[in-house]
Amino acid sequence: MWRDVVQFVGPNRAVEIAGVKLVGINAENGRKLLFTLAFFLLLALLSLCLRFLARLLLAGHRNARFRFWTQQAIRLATALFFLIGVVSIWFNDPARLATAVGLVTAGLAFALQKVVTAIAGYFVILRGNTFNVGHRIRMGGVRGDVIGLGFIQTTIMEMGEPPADQNADPEMWIRSRQYTGRIVTVTNDKIFEEPVFNYTREFPYIWEEMQIWISMSADRDQAERILLEAAGRHAVHADRMSSAELDDLKHRDGLRDEDLYPRVYYRLTSNWLELTLRFLVGTHGIREVKNRMTRDVIDRLEQAGIGIASTTMEIVGLPELHLRSLKPERAGRPR
């Protein structure tokens, strides 16, 4: 009975239901569909085995970035082979292939603009060396370390903001550049919309500052020496860099010798003298470095008898006060 309703007609054995011929549904396309599914399962199984084998072979490898890109290369190769296989199975006529590519491209450009842009951003990130896994970046309003990079999204281990940036969006409860515990995913299309700040790409240091305030009458030369000595013990400067690294920084980044050593700058205010120490530190562990420097500076200032200035009021004298009663005195109490 069902054979009278569903029939295979024509040289391609197209499906016909109740006399209505279904376009594109025939025996040949059915075989192609089954072959595509089998090809997909085979590639997925092969990719799974390769990634498992890579994890076993690289389990003791210290370079986490190399392990990540090995996994990423396997995924890219699997996706490429699958795309080539699908095209080979379904399009044996170049004219049909060109038409299909045009239609698919137009549809994707209209319906999946963000996704296509994110995928394009992925290749721009790789080709332009914008950042890599392990780099400390700020992207899409999120600052932290890159722990994953996919076709569409970048995964970031978020870190806090210094006090000066606490009102930034999103607001932070961690008052320094340390991990908050949140894992944030940012789409790759953000690289086309706003700048990406990379803290570790080619220059693995950043400049930091520490301010102290002293009174105008304090020994400012001694205070400056205390700051410079603390920076010499805890900060990074040219004497601790190799000659090759130093030459690279000078020629590639155009840095001068004085930029690589701690310096103290003065600024006069209406109440005190502000001393700003500028120094180099590594991109990680900055809070610990500044913590040790602060403790060191406070101890040395106390030993030198130099106090930290603050906004205070000192009353040095009061005018003489005279009190008198406004009511007339009475000789006696009335009966």
Structure described in brief:
The protein is of the alpha+beta class and 335 residues long. It folds into three domains: 2-111, no CATH class; 127-198, SH3 type barrels; 205-304, Alpha-Beta Plaits. The chain is built from eight helices and eleven strands.
Structural class: alpha+beta
Radius of gyration, in angstroms, nearest whole number: 36 Å
Strand order of the largest sheet: 7-6-5-4-8
DSSP summary, beta strand count: 11
User: What sequence of helices (H) and strands (E) makes up the elements?
Assistant: HEEEHHHHEEEEEEHHEEH
Largest sheet: 5 strands, antiparallel
Distance N to C terminus: 132 Å
Unreliable residue runs: none
Instruction: Figure out the total of helices.
Output: 8
How many structural units, i.e. domains? Answer: 3
Question: What is the average per-residue confidence, as pLDDT, rounded to a whole number?
Answer: 80
Q: Tell me the strand percentage band.
A: 15-25%
> Tell me, what's the shape?
elongated
